[in-house]
Amino acid sequence: MPGFEMFGAEEKKEVNEVLETGILMRYGFDGARNGMWKSKELEQAICSRFETQYAQLTSSGTGALTTAMVALGVGVGDEVIMPAFTFVASFEAILSVGAVPILVDIDSSLTLDPAAVEAAITPRTKCIMPVHMCGSMADLDALKAICDKYNLILLEDACQSIGGTYKGKPLGSIGHAGTFSFDFVKTITCGEGGVVMTNSKEVYTKADAYTDHGHDHAGVDRGADLHPFLGYNFRISELHAAVGLAQIKKLDQFLVVQKKNNQILKSYVEKVPGIAFRTVPDPAGDSGSFLTWFLPSQAATEKV
């Protein structure tokens, strides 16, 4: 159940407050906006809800992944290990910074197989990027151990698993950085949007600048900002942030409905002979946004 299915008066209220000021950009125009800073409010809400020290909103989940890699120091020639089962944005972001996606096998969790990850490490490996596919999560204990052993970066692509947890910790808050997508069919939607989450002030500072043409945002006048390095326009608008601000306040409600529907469907599917469900490393942390199962053979699958 994506968030747009429960779009209502709360989202309209937040958006209308922005429209009444006429200030749609997240930076500047301090006097005219009458104290309205929806992007800042949403970033603070994300930090609180997902237990991370810093959050930088972006224009998309793809922009969030790209920004996170740049802020983490992943660049030209670096190898990033990622699962072969993913969404196209995962490797688009890697290629966009000049890095090399190394696609490895998944296991029955439909996420990275830790043994395949370790076998794929070379002297050029810089980062391991689990993609928490279809509402569930990767084996983060195993992947963190590999990162610690080889001194690698752990970047969580949690775009499909908003609200999921691993051993009590929100997905996206466990690695060196994590990302969400807030596009129209995610559990929380901004219409379009994304976020980089991190507990590193250095990573956050770089992400903050990179998403706004390299502005350091160190002063009170954006026009007088310094530009310590190149950046791009990955800014979110106040309108999109306003929608997300209403949605995040309803996340727990979304998750209750999502998990209830998931269990109802599962209670019927599990009666079918030969059905096997995916492995979920932490069943209590499954966000419930997908119900995924396997059939006993390729022939049976093709027939269905």
Structural overview:
With 304 residues, the protein is of the alpha/beta class. It folds into two domains: 3-251, Type I PLP-dependent aspartate aminotransferase-like (Major domain) (Aspartate Aminotransferase, domain 2, 3-Layer(aba) Sandwich); 256-303, no CATH class. The chain has helices spanning 9-21, 38-49, 61-72, 88-96, 114-119, 140-150, 201-210, 238-248, 251-269, 298-303, and strands at residues 54-58, 79-83, 100-104, 125-128, 153-157, 165-166, 169-170, 177-181, 194-198, 276-277, 293-294. The strands form three sheets. The chain has a seven-stranded mixed β-sheet with strand order 1-9-8-5-4-2-3, sandwiched between helices. Strands 6-7 form a two-stranded antiparallel sheet. Strands 10-11 form a two-stranded antiparallel sheet. Helix 3 (61-72) crosses helix 7 (201-210). The longest helix is centred in the C-terminal third of the chain and has 19 residues, at 251-269.
